[in-house]
Please model this.
Amino acid sequence: MFEGLSDRLDRSFKILKGHGSITEINVAESVKEIRKALIEADVSYKIAKDFTSRVKAKALGSDVLNAIKPGELMVKIVHDELAELMGGEQVGINTKGDPAVILIAGLQGSGKTTFSAKLANYLKSKKGQQVMLVAGDVYRPAAINQLKVLGEQIGAEVYTEEDSKNPVQIAKNAVKRAKEYGKNIVIVDTAGRLAVDEEMMTEISNIKKAINPQEILFVVDSMTGQDAVNTAKAFNDLLNFDGVVLTKLDGDTRGGAALTIRSVVEKPIKFVGIGEKMDALDLFHPSRMADRILGMGDIVSLVEKAQEQFDEEEARKLQKKIAKNQFNFNDFMKQIQQIKKMGNVKDLMGMIPGMSKAIKDVDIDDDAFKGIEAIIQSMTPEERENPKLLNGSRRKRIANGAGSNIQEVNRLIKQFAETSKMMKMMTGGGGRKMANMMNAMKRR
Amino acid sequence: MGLFSVFSKKKQKEDLEKGIDKTKQSVFAKLSKAVAGKSKVDDEVLDNLEEALVTSDVGVHTTLKIIDRIEARVAKDKYLGIQELNTMLKEEIVDLLEENNSGDGADFDIPENKKPYVIMVVGVNGVGKTTTIGKLAYNFKNVGKSVVLGAADTFRAAAVDQLTIWAERVGVPIVSQGMNADPASVAYDTLRSAIAKNTDVVIIDTAGRLHNKINLMNELSKISRVMQKLIPDAPHEILLVLDASTGQNAIEQAKQFIAATEVNALALTKLDGTAKGGVVIGVSDQFKIPVKYIGVGEKMEHLQIFDRKEFVNSLFD
Model:
């Protein structure tokens, strides 16, 4: 019932595909579908409306009307428009200052404290900066402690005033201390606050006045719904923040809020949070986000996910084995384990362009590999080492042991033979080409 | 329960109304604009109604469902005025919200034959699980129940500290094994302690987890299984906490958490902001799970038993 945006768009484009060219009527029809899809992806109602009317205007341009494949052209129009809306260029943060002060603001539970520590870690390890974290959330129980623990994890100093209930003063003192200690970046974490809480909004406004930050970042949960409009606007009206941080993007939300916020406040999205670990922080890639929202596949993330799980040492060993024709069932098993580590098979496949639609209604079992594993585990160590041993009677025994049948066993052995052949081909000079291709995609 | 309970009911209602005030204003403002100067429900009114519902995060699917029902009734009843539309809309939405089996308005009652009554609290990161637990403990204690908390969020930095502070604030015991301990083992210990001390209510905190992370979801099933070694039908209540500001992803969250554990109650937090929490209507309807509690502020007393009629009334009155 919860359909992805890509499915919706595909359907609306299908409406177009039936026609030789785009007429006003079928454009209107597909535009309606696009709007529905955007709203289901949590794009604000009004922004979805504006967006689709722009798409409609473009689609009705004469060049489109005479196009040979109007459906494909429509995809391009939607994608380009979306990418433009997400902001063309990647924008970094301003770290010039003595020290540069970065103020973090947002609602409760958006992920400010985790982000503050991730940002400190990023600036420290990737940019070689001297960072000080400031625990400015004096309200939530153990918030100060949370930042202290994270600071310890990443080896960054955390400024706290355990007995103070005055975040304005704490922030002021912290900046002074940072100057004395020669820190060049101060990151001020603050308490979560609702945009309608006047007292708390005044407080953060006062913090801003007191420390005059170089950079104010608004942290927002990527799963946010229609309220993103109100909240982003209220925070921006008050703080005139410099950028947005989108957290929890490792979930499966379509992230329509990104579009909403981007167009309401016209401020760049600078970072995205993609996991609970301290290095799970990424720069924002507008085009990737547009692709994700459109369900055009996130092949770059897939490659990155694969690299995360990729053990270079293991890979080198494997390559040698393949070259020597020694690839066996133990290696095959290891490969399966590695794929399983990457996560849900259906999610992974959804990242491949075009696949998300194909597998939408297919119920892929999380234990897709279970049968294969059972068969391999029913082999003797010798058989796993040397697949050539597998004659008819051995195969029959394995089938019985795995609770399977001989056809399944035969199929697996055949698949295995094909896989090892293919792998041999790929390592013969092809591996380098693959690596180049991956790098090219990452740079996009 | 006499004068005091009447007073506290009134106070509760005020909190809820204050919390939902913004919600009420915007939805109602849009609706009255939609029906202004009209004596009949026409297409334009329905379009405006659609906008009002969609911008409250009710979602396209549920909105269309509500509108379909209203259209059907309009077709049958022929003439309809604004007042009737209002009443009808309320009725339809109340209908979609699942009735709370333990009975609307029950003041933190627990079934008699289930002692200790075990509640496991689950949800994605940052929805307000720990805060909700603190408030729950306060409310159960207030009606004379003994409570023990289990600090099974052993992952997020200082989560155990956070729950410990809540336990001290409310004045209830807490069982913890510190950070990075096995959450199932913490839950087991908490139950054992509750059985030994004849405690009424056990509330188990769990780490926030995104619903698409299979290993983390499996961990939840494991915590349940381990608790069942001591109490075969535990946890009696699996409370999924949803953030009112979450959009349509809440439906996917509910789906995955239900698949991993037997979620049988919902809590909707942060209703004191501008977020409408409309997605909960779709969640409750689709998965037939009642909303049991709502969070309307950061203080201990800012947790209420969800009353669907009152909730919908507060939206439209």
